[in-house]
C-alpha cells in the first residue's frame, strides 16, 4: 500500500498542475494578460531559442530546463495570434514538452 501511495504521489508531482499551484495560477494570469503575439518559424528554430524569446518578451520570467530537455532540438511552428499563455503552451506541445511553475517568476521546462 505504501508503494502505491508513493507511486501516486510521484506521478502527481510529474504533472503540471501539482507544482507550486499558488504560483501557477498567478503565472498563467500574467501570461494571459499579455498582448497577443505570434510565432511563425516554418523553417525551424531551436526550442531553447524560442523559449528565450518568451523570457525577453515578458522580461521578469526565468525559464530553467530539466537536464533531459534538448534545447537545440529544432521545431517548426506557426502559433497564430494568441495571448502569451496559449502561444507558450502551443510551443511546448509542438516540442513535446511540459512546464512546472517552481517560483513566482520561474518556469521549469520538462520532457513529457
UniProtKB/TrEMBL annotation:
<keyword id="KW-0732">Signal</keyword>
<feature type="signal peptide">
    <location>
        <begin position="1"/>
        <end position="19"/>
    </location>
</feature>
<protein>
    <submittedName>
        <fullName>STN domain-containing protein</fullName>
    </submittedName>
</protein>
